Structures are given as structure tokens and as C-alpha cells.
Amino acid sequence: MISVNDFKTGLTVEVEGDIFTVIDFQHVKPGKGAAFVRSKLKNLRNGNTVERTFRAGETIGRAIIENRGVQYLYASGSEHVFMDNETYDQFELTEKQLEWELNFLRENMTVNIVSYQGEILGINLPTSVELKVTETEPGVKGNTAQGATKAAVLETGHTVQVPLFINEGDVLLIDTREGKYISRA
């Protein structure tokens, strides 16, 4: 059990049978009445974000999340096959479970699987990945102020805004948290 006064961003807790990670929290001490903790929690099972208010000092269950290294093998229809790097066991995750992650996932890529008491909740990508540009318009010099960008389609199908000097075939470093261009690799 953990007190809500000890909330930290990224902490995983169990509330009413669901597993949540703390996205944001705020300790509030009103002039009149009891103190409380206002929090924003992300459900790790379905991805929904909820706002919850707890009384100061209230205790809730701590969820111990396990992270293991796995390798993404291939897609089979709407299922995606992964292999555990230690036991070589294979398992599948659905497209719904990997909605955002599929924008950055390449075959043979190593990622971390997130599980709670044997239940697979999803995967954690590295903070940045290298992806190849498959389609973009040629950059046009001329009437541009600083910071001009164009759209580029990556090998995974994800579209990002990139500077005009990026060409097809270039390998880019992409931030997986926001899905934005960082630099050329």
C-alpha cells in the first residue's frame, strides 16, 4: 500500500481493480476543509485517462510492473508477434493494444514488454528510433522564411514534418513520445 501523499509521475497504482500510471498530480490545501490530492491517471489496460481526487493520507495499492526485453518479429493480419529475449517464447498483441507504437515499430526491433502479474499490458518503445523516409516531395528553395517544413512518410507509414533538406532514402531520428522529427541519423 502507498499513500497518495507519496505520488510521483510514472508511479503505477491499483485503483478499484484497474492498473493506472500517474501522469500528473497536485497537492491541494484549501483554506477551509481537508487537504486532498488531485491526480490524472492513465489506465494501462485500455489507455483511457481519468482524473481522480483522493483525500490526503488515503492509501491505495501499489502495482509492481515488470519490464522484459522482447523482439518484434512480424505482423500476421491484425496480430503482431513478439519473442521473449530470454525464454524465446512467442506471443501476440493486437493492433488495438499497439495503436500508437505501430507508427515506430520495425521488424527485429527490441522493445520492453510491460506486464502485471502475467497479464501483458503493452510495450515501451525507446525514446527515439531511426526510420527511413520512403516518400517526400523535393525541397524547393526560394520564398521561405526560417523553419520551413514539409511532410515525409516513414517506412512504418507514419507522417512527420521535416525540414526542406530531407530527401527520400534519408534515415531520421524520430521521437516516439510525440512522433516528431529530431534530426538525421
From TrEMBL:
Q: Where in the cell is it found?
A: Cytoplasm
Q: In which pathway does it act?
A: Protein biosynthesis; polypeptide chain elongation
| Stored SMART domains | EFP, Elong-fact-P_C
- Annotated Elongation factor P C-terminal domain residues: 129-184
Q: Which Pfam families match?
A: EFP, EFP_N, Elong-fact-P_C
Q: Which UniProt keywords apply?
A: Cytoplasm, Elongation factor, Protein biosynthesis
The Translation elongation factor P/YeiP central domain extends over 67-121
The UniProt entry, under Gene3D superfamilies, shows: 2.30.30.30, Nucleic acid-binding proteins
Among InterPro entries, the record links this protein to: Elong-fact-P_C, NA-bd_OB-fold, Rib_uL2_dom2, Transl_elong_fac_P/YeiP, Transl_elong_KOW-like, Transl_elong_P/YeiP_cen, Transl_elong_P/YeiP_CS, Transl_elongation_fac_P
Question: Sorted alphabetically, which CDD domains does this protein's record hold?
Answer: S1_EF-P_repeat_1, S1_EF-P_repeat_2
Give the molecular function GO annotations.
translation elongation factor activity
Q: What does this protein do?
A: Involved in peptide bond synthesis. Stimulates efficient translation and peptide-bond synthesis on native or reconstituted 70S ribosomes in vitro. Probably functions indirectly by altering the affinity of the ribosome for aminoacyl-tRNA, thus increasing their reactivity as acceptors for peptidyl transferase.
Checking HAMAP family in the record gives: EF_P
The UniProt entry's sequence similarity note says: Belongs to the elongation factor P family.
Protein name per Swiss-Prot or TrEMBL: Elongation factor P
Q: Which gene encodes it?
A: efp
